[in-house]
């Protein structure tokens, strides 16, 4: 079942003394099919991060609906919404704050396993699995985020969110802060994972070439509205 | 064309505790007037350090050896006051993190005007006009408003353009730009590129452009230097190198671009504290031989460029 | 920690040792009565007070009460402040408005007069002091914690934790709170110093517990029993110095981490 965005609007109140409403999203509709990668492009201020956050359940729209398996996520019961949350995961841009700086990598991975209900005898196995998904060396487990590279951090972030086997993955500029060759590694990893799991992806980026490489369809957002929705082209 | 900048055997290292980090090893190149040299490489390759070394902005713990000659003057041995005079007037510097380069207590207009008033005899009205012109060229449609802004009121991208305007406004002879387009939207990057192209056409300014954005390098560079692990591995005419890279790292770098299929280079960049033996790239090179693991290759001329590779020289 | 911080740590450790095991340092039990009003000499390095207690022993045994009040009150205030700050900063909305409003009200209440008033009803004693200090000193920490939380809550790892489905309690306690340590620690140390001085002040004006030995109580008796008038400096200068040195040591530790407390700074 696709993940559908129906006429989402989002406005904030801006200003210090007199609050003025500011429309970030003005009626956005799109659909993401399973197994499909939709690239989302737009300049800063176009609303793409806001849309991503709303899809991930981190923010509520001012109006409009998000439909998952046919139901409006904002009308779901708490348990249903929680299960929606699990099936739509998000990877963020800035590697510097993608992981808790006070926790070792090992701890960060264990927490995710424990959250999924893995008992203490299964934790080691779960962590190994996450390392394998991310293509990481076990020696990274003892390290803190400030001791590893940006590429490794994004791999860990990916491994963490994939443990819950989400149906959809939203990536908000996941490789924008990475070197070109590292970006290539991460994008290839993403492609492999997507082929294996059949996840639907929303890939947000400002880089034309990257979006063209990874997406089946490209949606452009400008000033809070969709300006085009078509295959990547040449 | 005379040589404006002459770098010979520049090495920069940092000592932290037990480890010595060799950020830059034995880099030599020169720069002529009106030439654009782009230093390209990934995180940790040392390109930014070179920019800081030329500007004289390295931290005091840095150990520097080699020569940096600007118009025959050794930049490292001149007194600080002279260096300060050079900066802004003859040498323009645009560094990363533009928001830090701007003083939060003064308006943009005031800060850019300061540069003019400090180094020249122009009047306030004249400088006002110059600032407005520069801002308009940076893509700001209403310079009057921008000049009254404070840095915290503008986005990083805007601040970046303010800083570029401010360092080029006095038409320096040498411009050092460290990642001037990082963090900007496509349209803003275009504005910056257009402005650099205008500068290149209208002024006789030598530019050292440091970037990891290969598209920008391709648009602007006359010559390009590819850096890896603190060394120059390939340097020569930009168009030629883009068309036909010789060094395996350069090939790998271009190959990993999304346009070329995102073919990754296996492995990771080496930590700068542990230098491998032989060629620094050999652990990741598919074509390595015993010689590559043993002997450190020198930078030598092949055809129209310099390449640091045993295999390239043996062909 | 820089060098000044290490010095402060060394000094404070000595005081802590005095608090925990005063018999190691003190020549006598402070309650034994010797000849009163003795001047400093070989038997009694700092002389004796009006009850004949050895002053040096008194001084050392007093470390316990002063440090206890100082640190327990600071722990209480810090816990309260951090909890309120995290809840306000994480949930935002009306919860934040309410908690910050309450914070502003508490900020206006002066601590020492409040302690005096409450002591008048509940009687004096160190627990009144600790509880009142804790109940009224959490505001600065709450403010700082909240402002830091506003920043942290937008980081990738917190947003990710929410998406992954970690409970709010887990996120606040295990993801956000540890990242506040760098900012909260200096404030905690300074609160401890402030609490110690408050205890000394309260005891000095006679609202402390007279049966307990603390530096403030020593100062109080030094004045009321005529120490100042009779020029018996060994009654009032030692406790004054003790308080000052202890507070200085705490301040040195509190300011010892010069590097900014940005998220991502672990050490």
Walk me through what this model shows.
The complex is a heterotrimer of chains A (about 230), B (about 325) and C (about 270). With about 230 residues, chain A is α/β, with parallel strands linked by helices. Chain A is built from seven helices and ten strands. Chain A has a single domain (about 5-230), classed as P-loop containing nucleotide triphosphate hydrolases (Rossmann fold, 3-Layer(aba) Sandwich), CATH 3.40.50.300. Chain A has helices at about 50-55, 80-85, 105-115, 125-135, 150-160, 180-195, 210-215; strands at about 5-15, 20-30, 35-40, 65-70, 70, 90, 170, 200-205, 215-220, 225-230. In chain A, α3 runs parallel beside α5 and α4 (about 125-135) crosses α5. Chain B is α/β, with parallel strands linked by helices. In chain B, β1 (about 5-15) and β2 form a beta hairpin. Chain B is built from 13 helices and twelve strands. The longest helix of chain B is centred in the middle third of the chain and has 17 residues, at about 185-200. Chain B starts with a strand and ends with a helix. The model of chain B has no long low-confidence stretch (mean pLDDT about 85). Chain B has one domain: Rossmann fold (3-Layer(aba) Sandwich). An eight-stranded mixed β-sheet of chain B has the order 6-7-8-3-9-10-12-11, with helices on both faces. In chain B, α4 (about 110-120) crosses α5 (about 125-135) and α4 (about 110-120) runs parallel beside α7 (about 155-170). Chain C has one domain (about 5-15, about 50-265): MetI-like fold, CATH 1.10.3720.10. Chain C contains twelve helices and no strands. Chain C has helices spanning about 5-20, 20-25, 55-90, 95-110, 110-120, 125-135, 140-150, 155-165, 170-175, 180-205, 215-225, 235-255. In chain C, α3 (about 55-90) runs parallel beside α6 (about 125-135). Residues about 260-265 of chain C have low confidence and may be disordered. Classes of the chains: A alpha/beta (about 230), B alpha/beta (about 325), C mainly alpha (about 270). The interface between A and C is medium-sized, with 33 and 19 residues.
